[in-house]
């Protein structure tokens, strides 16, 4: 969507480049402090790294081995904060670590779990304990007789980005997708930033520029700003496979491997198991990342070494890969590269505008990263208000007593609704579902069903309120219905989007 000429003439306080979790988190925090904010994303929100995670809000148990105590402490505390901020898309999840004595001794794991229980403030999440497996009931291979159990959280990663974007807009920020920054230059203390969308090139003026482009952070500084980055970036590929569920129950497993790494096996969308992630250096175009044969074999092998139910390539129903942009600490091992974030503030001359670049970071600590960014920018924006995001509910969490009660309210409004659809809506939209269901009194009012209980009314809501443009936006980032849709059904959805777009053009013309 092209912005107005008034927006182009305005001098913003902050222009954020990048619509992943860090960019959107910074835009949201800044807008809530009273700054004028513009954000552009070259593709869709969460189109890359932020939708390719292991779908966890976690402290990072294995980071303790690399002595990342500050990061782990911050991440552990954030689990509780984020759980309260968005309980419709974040839920507690118990993890079981099968004990493999030849990999890590029991005393080392118990010590790590002691730190995990007490390093960060824990209010609602249960602590760790020992577990012993019944050979007849356990999904694990019979030689695995004991293990350890602890708590973290599961999250819909892409929706976490979307909810922050929605809140930023409600705080006054302007956010646009499918809009690429093609260059920026300094002029009398401000940045003149050239942006390109499908309609052409236009310019935005801003006092400060935030480079939150993730895997492209260093390239952006070099190519668009003609400067040298202060830090290097290491691109590490992480891939996952999804198979029909390997076991019953709602607990995840954290599997130790002979190379010192760990792999998660996580219940996913009720009927699948999500297995990942890998860690390997990546040197190609982050836009073109795909899982490799080596990664597929690696994840299959780790799974088969632990579970009774054996899998092969034929059992894989979906794969996804992402590039984690890590600040280069010159570690020889990709798994040991710090997951902590580094913020680089650049202001070469006294009257130069500010450039803040984000190196690294992880999903769990995006809110603290944004607060740190605001702290660094505060000297240049003395009018900004104080921190606010810790206790602010994300969209859909307002007036949410419980998911169970919300499901009942949805069913009261639409008595004929399918139980699974009510559950999906409750978890995806929280109380914002009633914005979607405004003027809806029965299933007929939902319009045409494209497939798998995706109705026109929901599609319209995603277009109007969540920046959805393509079928991929809707199927993989706004919902997870992409796991069910066939190629033909996806084409039907694209045709529906074209029809709705034409209707909106006619309405605007009228």
* CATH architecture assignment name of the largest domain: 2-Layer Sandwich
How large, in whole angstroms, is the Cα Rg?
23 Å
Taken from the alpha-carbon principal axes, the silhouette is globular
- Average per-residue pLDDT, rounded, comes to 94
Family: Belongs to the FAD-dependent glycerol-3-phosphate dehydrogenase family.
Catalytic activity: a quinone + sn-glycerol 3-phosphate = dihydroxyacetone phosphate + a quinol
InterPro entries: DAO_C, DAO_C_sf, FAD-dep_OxRdtase, FAD/NAD-bd_sf, G3P_DH_FAD-dep
Domain Alpha-glycerophosphate oxidase C-terminal: 388-484
Report on the architecture of this protein.
- With 510 residues, the chain is of the alpha+beta class.
- The protein has helices at 5-9, 21-32, 69-85, 106-118, 157-170, 217-223, 293-306, 366-377, 403-413, 419-429, 433-436, 456-466, 471-478, 487-509; strands at residues 11-17, 37-40, 56-57, 90-98, 129-132, 146-155, 174-176, 180-187, 190-197, 200-211, 233-244, 252-256, 262-268, 272-276, 280-281, 316-327, 341-346, 354-360, 449-451, 454-455.
- The chain has three domains: 5-48 and 159-232 and 339-380, FAD/NAD(P)-binding domain; 68-155 and 234-335, D-Amino Acid Oxidase, Chain A, domain 2 (2-Layer Sandwich), CATH 3.30.9; 403-509, Alpha-glycerophosphate oxidase, cap domain (Helicase, Ruva Protein, domain 3).
- It has 14 helices and 20 strands.
- Helix 9 packs across helix 10 (419-429).
- The longest helix has 23 residues, at 487-509.
- The chain is globular, with a radius of gyration of 23 Å.
- The model has no long low-confidence stretch (mean pLDDT 94).
- Keywords: FAD, Flavoprotein, Oxidoreductase.
- Its EC number is 1.1.5.3.
């Amino acid at each position: 969507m092209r912005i107005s000429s008034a927006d182009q003439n305005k001098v913003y306080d902050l222009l954020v480049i990048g619509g992943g979790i860090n960019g959107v988190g910074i835009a949201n925090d800044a807008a809530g402090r009273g700054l004028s904010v513009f954000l552009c994303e070259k593709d869709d929100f969460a189109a890359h790294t932020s939708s390719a995670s292991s779908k966890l809000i976690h402290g990072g148990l294995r980071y303790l081995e690399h002595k990342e105590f500050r990061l782990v402490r911050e991440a552990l505390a954030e689990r509780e904060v984020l759980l309260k901020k968005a309980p419709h898309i974040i839920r507690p999840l118990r993890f079981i670590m099968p004990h493999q004595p030849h990999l890590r001794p029991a005393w080392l794991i118990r010590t790590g779990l002691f730190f995990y229980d007490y390093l960060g403030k824990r209010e609602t999440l249960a602590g760790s304990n020992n577990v012993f497996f019944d050979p007849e009931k356990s999904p694990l291979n019979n030689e695995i007789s004991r293990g350890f159990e602890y708590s973290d959280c599961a999250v819909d990663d892409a929706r976490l980005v979307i909810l922050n974007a929605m809140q930023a807009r409600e705080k006054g920020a302007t956010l646009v997708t499918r809009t690429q920054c093609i260059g920026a230059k300094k002029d009398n203390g401000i940045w003149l930033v050239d942006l390109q969308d499908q309609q052409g090139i236009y310019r935005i003026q801003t006092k400060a520029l935030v480079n939150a482009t993730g895997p492209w952070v260093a390239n952006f500084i070099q190519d668009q700003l003609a400067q040298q980055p202060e830090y290097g970036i290491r691109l590490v590929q992480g891939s996952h496979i999804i198979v029909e569920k390997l076991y019953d129950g709602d607990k995840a497993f954290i599997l130790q491997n002979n190379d010192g790494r760990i792999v998660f096996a996580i219940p996913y969308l009720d009927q699948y198991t999500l297995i990942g992630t890998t860690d390997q250096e990546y040197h190609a175009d982050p836009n073109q990342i795909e899982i490799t044969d080596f990664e597929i074999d690696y994840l299959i092998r780790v799974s088969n070494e632990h579970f009774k139910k054996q899998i092969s390539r034929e059992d894989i129903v979906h794969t996804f890969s992402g590039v984690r942009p890590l600040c280069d600490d010159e570690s020889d091992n990709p798994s040991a590269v710090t997951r902590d974030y580094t913020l680089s503030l650049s202001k070469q001359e006294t009257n130069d505008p500010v450039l803040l670049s984000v190196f690294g970071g992880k999903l769990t600590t995006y809110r603290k990263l944004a607060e740190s960014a605001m702290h660094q920018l505060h000297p240049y924006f003395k009018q900004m208000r104080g921190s606010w995001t810790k206790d602010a509910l994300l969209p859909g969490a307002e007036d949410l007593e419980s998911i169970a009660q919300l499901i009942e309210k949805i069913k009261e409004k639409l008595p004929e609704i399918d139980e699974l659809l009510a559950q999906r809506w409750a978890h995806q939209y929280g109380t914002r579902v009633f914005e979607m269901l405004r003027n809806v009194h029965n299933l007929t009012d939902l319009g045409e069903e494209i497939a798998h209980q995706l109705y026109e009314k929901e599609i319209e809501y995603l277009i109007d309120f969540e920046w959805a443009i393509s079928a991929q936006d809707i199927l993989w980032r706004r919902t997870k219905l992409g796991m069910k849709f066939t190629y033909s059904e996806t084409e039907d959805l694209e045709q529906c989007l074209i029809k709705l777009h034409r209707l909106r053009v006619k309405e605007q013309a009228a």
